[in-house]
Amino acid sequence: ATGSVVVPARVFTEIVRRLPEDDVFIDTDDKHMVKVESGASSFNIRGLSSDDYPALPIVEHDRSLVLEQKILKEMIQQTKFAASTDDSRPILKGINLIFENGKLTLVTIDGFRLAVRKEKIEGEQQETMQFIVPARAMEDVSHVLSDTDEAVTIGPSHNYVLFDTGNVKIVSRLIQGEFLNYKSILPSGNKTSLVIDPQILLSAIERASIVIDRDEKRFPVTLETPDEDTLIISSKTDIGMSREELNIALTGELVDIDFNPKLFMDALREIEDDQITVSFQGSVGPCSIQPLEEDKFFYLVLPLRR
Predict the structure, then answer these.
(1) Which residues have CB under 8 Å from 301's CB, separation 6+?
(2) Are 5 and 17 in contact (CB under 8 A)?
(3) Which residues are within 8 A (CB) of 1 and not within 5 positions of it... i.e. 6 or more apart?
(4) 39-68 burial, b for 16+ CB within 10 Å, e for fewer?
């Protein structure tokens, strides 16, 4: 038989997650009691009538993008962490999606860092598009995307955007307003550049962060280059101190600069490349992180003032 009923999302999700690997049977009665059975497990939960449940908004879009689910999932993962959580700047709580010249770009900014992820999109769509989706909604989208080359369609309208995988449809309200032009804050030149394995750098910063209390933001991690072959990563707090030397290949001026370690680690954890270029604009300017060869991602992190 067919029908519908509203169930408590958290309880129902936990039940399904913990059921044995067996067939699942779901039944409901005219009082909206829902019975879930699988193997030797049985649950009865109280539901509600679906008559008053909000209908999914109809998204009437005349343009769309189609790309592989695994690519969009990766793009979201590599940018969502840099979206703002500050309610006073609601537009920065979103991910800016830009499609132009056959390339999709996702951008997030929180005032302390910038994340940019680009991907070339094959297909007939050539019209330029730009819209802002709440980062929380994009994270929900990433949870239903698979790690396969199956397609997901993105269809924006004036107020909403539809993400359609074929089996799952997610509709989100768009954030209205003008997103910050990220290109205007990109560095015009670098005074210092070094090449390093991102996982080696991440591990060193994680170790330096051990002596920094998680909620204590006034203690930085220091990156210092005493010569062209050495990067010293250190920290000093009321708890203790840490110092580690890494071998690097540096070009340009020597640097001595402080950063909030979390901002660095958030970016490095999402990088899968074997080598990256880390560039500095002196000891007070922003630091940029990007691939050694491609230009798929770009991260910008502001230093801490001493």
Answers:
(1) 112, 113, 259, 263, 264, 267, 286, 287, 288, 289
(2) no
(3) none
(4) eeeebebebeeeeeeeeeeebeeeebbebb
Encoded tokens for 43: 């649950």
Both tokens assigned to 29: 């009665």
Phi and psi dihedrals of 8, rounded to 5? -60, 120
C-alpha span between 261 and 283 (Å, rounded): 16
Residue 274, both tokens: 């074997």
At 152, list the tokens: 């997901």
Topology of the domain covering 187-301:
DNA Polymerase III; Chain A, domain 2 (3.10.150)
49-53 long-range Cβ contacts below 8 angstroms, 24+ apart: 49/5, 49/6, 50/4, 50/5, 50/6, 53/4, 53/6
What is the C-alpha separation between 1 and 96, in angstroms, rounded?
43
97 CA to centre of own chain: 13
Domain with CATH 3.10.150.10 in the chain: 65-183, 187-301
What CATH architecture is 65-183? Roll (3.10)
Is the predicted pLDDT of residue 50 greater than 70, yes or no?
A: yes
Give 227 or 306, the one with higher predicted confidence.
227
- If DSSP codes are grouped into helix, strand and coil, which group holds residue 237? coil
Provide the β-strand partners of residue 113.
301
Distance of CA 275 to the CA centre of its chain: 21
**Model pLDDT, residue 217:** 62
Tell me how far apart the alpha carbons of residues 23 and 7 are, in angstroms, rounded to a whole number. 20
Among residues 280, 113, 284, the alpha carbon closest in space to that of 182 is found at: 113
**pLDDT digit string, tens, across residues 76-126:** 999 999 999 999 999 999 999 999 999 999 999 999 999 999 999 887 667
Residue partners of 29: CB distance under 8 A and separation at least 6: none
The tokens for 21 are: 């690997």
Instruction: For residues 44 and 9, give the distance between their C-alpha atoms in angstroms, rounded to a whole number.
Output: 14
